[in-house]
Write a structure and sequence with these properties.
Strand order of the largest sheet: 2-1-3-4
Distance between the termini: 14 Å
Number of helices: 6
Low-confidence stretches: 44-54
Strand content: 5-15%
Shape: globular
Helix content: 40-55%
Structural class: alpha+beta
Order of helices and strands: HHHHHEEEHE
Number of strands: 4
Radius of gyration: 18 Å
């Protein structure tokens, strides 16, 4: 066994990383577009139609996250993972308010989940410590150890402290 493959941040096979960026504008634009689609065609008196602008049907933090995402895009500056995170959780709030199934790009859900996992409160980190997390519907896994699995949205809700339902044990990840 070659131990260099087992060390964190160690040598890997070379591959093209020219598309790697810390600017999440493109992914934020997709999330905001999905949120806008949920509100189109609804009557102006419908609370769900006003959700993106702060209707009571959507948690204030969710509406604020969507507004902050719009402002970030309009600024023309680099969009951070924290800004994407706020918009994703705003979108999840909107989906819940209108009864829609969230549709998130695997890269978006995985990036936000990873960011949340690294900054999670102690009780959540205690649950995921020593495990890998696997999104059964998004094709991503991160971490090392026995696998905990759930859908991407279920993982985001758990990592964001919105659900007490911990991911289920899955297959082992050596």
């Amino acid at each position: 066994m070659d131990l260099r493959y087992e060390l964190p941040l160690s040598w890997r096979e070379p591959h093209d990383e020219s598309a790697v960026t810390s600017d999440w504008r493109a992914k934020l634009s997709v999330v905001l577009g999905a949120a806008a689609e949920l509100t189109q065609g609804r009557p102006a008196t419908d609370a769900a139609a006003d959700a993106a602008v702060g209707a009571p049907a959507v948690a204030p933090a969710g509406a604020d996250g969507l507004r902050a995402g719009e402002a970030a895009l309009e600024s023309g500056r680099r969009v951070s993972i924290k800004q994407l995170d706020r918009a994703v959780y705003g979108y999840l709030d909107l989906c819940e308010a209108v009864g829609a199934v969230p549709e998130l790009d695997p890269t978006t859900s995985g990036a936000v989940a990873l960011a949340r996992a690294t900054a999670a409160p102690t009780p959540i980190r205690a649950v995921i410590a020593g495990h890998s997390l696997h999104a059964t519907d998004a094709g991503w896994t991160f971490g090392r150890g026995p696998e905990l699995q759930a859908t991407a949205v279920e993982l985001l809700n758990f990592l964001g402290g919105r659900s007490l339902q911990a991911p289920s044990p899955g297959r082992s990840n050596p």
